[in-house]
Amino acid sequence: MRRLAARLPRRDIVFVASAAILLVVVAMALSAPFVFPGGPWEVVGPPMARPLSDGFLLGTDTIGRSLLSGIFYGARVSLLVGIVATALPFLLGMLVGAVAGYYGGVVDDALMRLTELFQTVPHFMLALVLVAILTPSIGSIIIAISVVSWPPVARLVRGEFLILRNREFVEAAVLSGRGDASIILREILPNALGPIVVMASLMVATAILLEAAISFIGLGDPNLMSWGYMVGASRTVLRTAWWVSVMPGLAVFLTVLAINFLGEALNEALNPRSALGTMR
Amino acid sequence: MTADALRVEGLTVALPASGQRAHAAEDISFSLRRGETLCMVGESGSGKSVVAHAVMGLLPASLRLTAGRILLEGGEIQGLGEAGFRRIRSRRLSMIFQEPMTALNPLMRIGDQISEVMRVHGVGDRRAIRDRMFELAEQVRLPDPATILRAYPMQLSGGQRQRVMIAMALALKPAVLVADEPTTALDVTTQAQILAIIREMQETYGTGVLFVTHDFGVVSEIADRVVVMEKGKAVEEGLAADVLTRPAHPYTRRLIAAVPALAADAGPALEEPRPAALEVKGLSKRFVRRSGLFSRRTVGGAGRGVARRVGRGEFFGITGGSGWGRPTLGRLIGRLARPDSGDILVDEVTLARLDDRALRPLRRNVQMIFQDPFGSLNPRQTIGTILGTVLSLGGSDAAAARQEAARLLDLVGLDAGALDRFPHEFSGGQRQRISLARALATEPRLLIADEAVSALDVVIQAQILDLLADLRRRLGLTVLFITHDLRVAGRICDRVAVMLRGEIVEQGRPAEIFAAPRHPYTASLIASIPGWDPERRRQPVEQRQRKETAR
To answer: pTM for the full model?
Structure first.
């Protein structure tokens, strides 16, 4: 782990900025109840106050709630969804892809047909239907996002496994008499990890975006303030009070961008050969 | 008026500051006449490829040309920018590469790739290009040109792809052809054919060939003159006949000595009978293969009806040209593939019919070393982890495994410092040593060396073969040595079997086979070894020209 940290491009401005943005988002999520003890729904001032007026850093929304408070609390939802709704489909997809790619044959066929079944259904529609059926809540949103996002992981992992399965170092591991689990976990998976980690970081970003989209439409968790809900609720006043939708929109934009850059840096660091390349 | 097709004067290429030495190539001078072949010889890392790439204007960005002149037919070209080089490449200066698969565009038909060379240089109309293409295909002896020109690179064999590369390179009759190890990836029979084609094309077009190779066997086949490179410097230069018979520099002598001669020096015959380490009975495997050009599927058998017995402590060689049979046999005996019929007995335990689960505890008895030194070690594990994993399976705890791993590395000639390093920090030869250490970690009854030295240059190859011979004395190894190179097999094996299309056509002690091959296929294999047949050696270019003028 320390070796990994040493390989991260700590002098790269994009990397530093991305890490800083993500740290700020995490800090906002953690400190929200202390900075804004009244919660995000509390009316604290006149409606649609401009940014930097009346002591409101980002202004207020259509009924006078602090935008800054909303963004602090929204960070909690976005991070929760980003982490849990990535981890679940990530693990599921990895399991399906690894088993399909390693064993091949009938197992592969069956698992891949199932994967394709999920892939052919439009993601956003399926997610919306699932949230509607399960009644809108943070849990149902996470489940819906997980259900629609595991198939690409499974396909990517399977592809990597198919390539690596016949590499000579894997055959050498077979020859030394090791079990399938050991070969999958110790020989193949670490070599397949690079593209998968990058994909996972993209998945965090898309999960945050999906949640924002679902909330924007109005199917979000009614008890939680989310960035998507904030943009959606204020879209009617976009021309008179732009900041009400732009501020949470910017929050989504910067967070997603930062996560993508971090994912790429992580990929570079995970690959010992490319790390050597940057040293030269 | 200069007769030199290519003249290089004081060429110096600087390495980046962190490199092992200051210059990739230092003060290199040579000249190449039309119709002449100049061989640039050296080990990997000697700078020979750097010179070839500098001539083509293809140096990577990290290398800088710091001094010297390159004259192509009397005109300086080293200062030309990318646009300038683009105008002369193919037209006056061409190159063929070691790996024709990566040098060809996998998504373009062969014919389109050859005609593109002529199209981008605006030579001829459609009809003329088409005629020229067929003429070239015939000259490089592509079988069935009409079909091949419509095929994609992956549908061709390695030798056919290299022929296509030659056709492309010579389409516009350039003055100079730079050939960078063009036959290293090919087996000996194909190599001999490609060398013959290069020679013929050269005579047809009067091309000057700058031929980069590490193999003095190849040099003796085609060179008029030789430049020997060591660590970026030219250490010897002269007529091929002189350098080959009277090498002046010790490095040249070492390179020539490393060329495996076709001789069997495996010592006296092993006393028979020995207990059998491996018995193979009537092994066969049918497999579906897409035949080269046509999408038709054919079914072939590998090792059909092979019945062999390898005694304990014996080195048994299996050899033959490329094509199916030879490599599959190693994978079958190693039980990475499952045979359809027949039996494999290792120390009298049958392995052929077992399923994966039953096989697992017996796997330790048969180990393999593979061809590709870059693909056979997990790039994300340190050497210590790679060896430790195998050792801990045998029941060693972490500390004992580390100690044992260090002992194994010592056995293969590496020091214990290697334990904490990753595979990419090692050279090809060192990686093959590590692979060998891993294979020895289970104390196998049988070691299968599947083209284990084919990807290495001759000097390293000789070192690995010496190591195997040494380990044999110390550990009493039994080795099944699979190689396309008869010289390698003869050098190390007690007995050799020659395979043709999945069947063994001849078997015996190497000395007997080489002296009196009984099967015509064996005879043709022996004849295609570079440098083997002194009759075929080149005459110096002056003599040839004299003959031509006399005609």
So the answer is: 0.74
